[in-house]
């Protein structure tokens, strides 16, 4: 049993925090922008409102750029104020590529999130390997990746304990889960272990959560939004993905509307987008700025 288990975490109140009433959610301060730093719920971790994702089509889009092209894109985003970068153990090659791209930048100047696959090796061994791949001493956020079905909170207890032990060792600063499908999402507001939830979000329900988590079946937008609001009310941070439907939104008006919907209607705190060129970074910053305005 890890020295700092999920049971101890819940018992000692580390997981507790002041509840935030839905009516008191302030989505944006005046003149808010994509590159503002925001605190994710009770986690005390600050991230920029817009993140740089590395998992488009499981990272294929970013890998296709090659290391030099990818590094230039990461540095462009960094220089333009995006200081939150996310990857995953399952994105083949991307943790290593991101580690190289960020090498030499002050570690305290950006936030880094990764997602661990909840099978196989010992959790602590897996996270240590992820740190080695990413050339980082710590992750600001570590998520349980692709949690599905209604029993994921109990199925993943060993991994929750492992992440908490790594947090005790200061190799992880905060933790949460990336959930897929309504049966999994319905467990989120009630799971007190979570600091952060990663939830799919767009106004059309493209590649969003449905009852069977079928990829090409439209998601239940209204229910997803309700769970986001409940999650925020419970004091947790919410990061959203699939803002451009994993590339399905070819019309810029849809991409703009998706950003506005995520922040204004759903109340997410941060969004992550995968990019393949600097024009997409510029547009994403503008779209979030418009949503903030």
TrEMBL record:
<dbReference type="InterPro" id="IPR020471">
    <property type="entry name" value="AKR"/>
</dbReference>
<dbReference type="InterPro" id="IPR019546">
    <property type="entry name" value="TAT_signal_bac_arc"/>
</dbReference>
<feature type="domain" description="NADP-dependent oxidoreductase">
    <location>
        <begin position="50"/>
        <end position="260"/>
    </location>
</feature>
<dbReference type="InterPro" id="IPR006311">
    <property type="entry name" value="TAT_signal"/>
</dbReference>
<dbReference type="Pfam" id="PF10518">
    <property type="entry name" value="TAT_signal"/>
</dbReference>
<protein>
    <submittedName>
        <fullName>Oxidoreductase</fullName>
    </submittedName>
</protein>
<dbReference type="Pfam" id="PF00248">
    <property type="entry name" value="Aldo_ket_red"/>
</dbReference>
<dbReference type="GO" id="GO:0005829">
    <property type="term" value="C:cytosol"/>
</dbReference>
<dbReference type="InterPro" id="IPR036812">
    <property type="entry name" value="NAD(P)_OxRdtase_dom_sf"/>
</dbReference>
<dbReference type="InterPro" id="IPR023210">
    <property type="entry name" value="NADP_OxRdtase_dom"/>
</dbReference>
<dbReference type="GO" id="GO:0016491">
    <property type="term" value="F:oxidoreductase activity"/>
</dbReference>
């Amino acid at each position: 049993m890890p020295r700092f288990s999920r049971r101890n975490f819940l018992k000692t109140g580390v997981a507790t925090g002041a509840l935030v009433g839905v009516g008191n959610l302030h989505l944006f301060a005046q003149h808010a922008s994509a590159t503002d730093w925001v605190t994710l719920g009770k986690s005390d971790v600050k991230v920029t409102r817009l993140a740089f994702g590395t998992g488009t089509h499981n990272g294929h889009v970013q890998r296709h750029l090659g290391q030099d092209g990818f590094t230039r894109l990461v540095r462009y985003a960094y220089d333009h104020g995006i200081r939150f970068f996310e990857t995953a153990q399952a994105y083949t090659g991307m943790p290593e590529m991101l580690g190289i791209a960020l090498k030499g930048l002050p570690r305290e100047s950006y936030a880094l999130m990764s997602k661990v696959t909840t099978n196989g090796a010992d959790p602590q061994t897996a996270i240590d390997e992820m740190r080695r791949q990413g050339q980082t001493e710590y992750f600001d956020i570590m998520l349980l990746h692709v949690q599905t079905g209604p029993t994921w909170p109990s199925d993943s207890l060993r991994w929750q304990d492992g992440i908490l032990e790594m947090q005790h060792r200061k190799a992880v600063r905060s933790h949460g889960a990336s959930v897929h499908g309504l049966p999994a999402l319905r467990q989120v507001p009630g799971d007190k272990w979570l600091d952060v939830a990663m939830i799919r979000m767009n106004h059309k329900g493209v590649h969003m959560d449905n009852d069977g988590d079928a990829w090409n079946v439209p998601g239940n937008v209204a229910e997803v939004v309700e769970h986001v609001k409940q999650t925020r009310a419970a004091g947790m941070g919410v990061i959203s993905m699939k803002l451009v439907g994993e590339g399905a939104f070819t019309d810029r008006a849809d991409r703009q509307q998706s950003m506005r919907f995520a922040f204004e209607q759903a109340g997410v705190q941060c969004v992550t987008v995968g990019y393949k060129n600097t024009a997409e970074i510029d547009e994403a910053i503008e779209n979030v700025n418009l949503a903030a305005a």
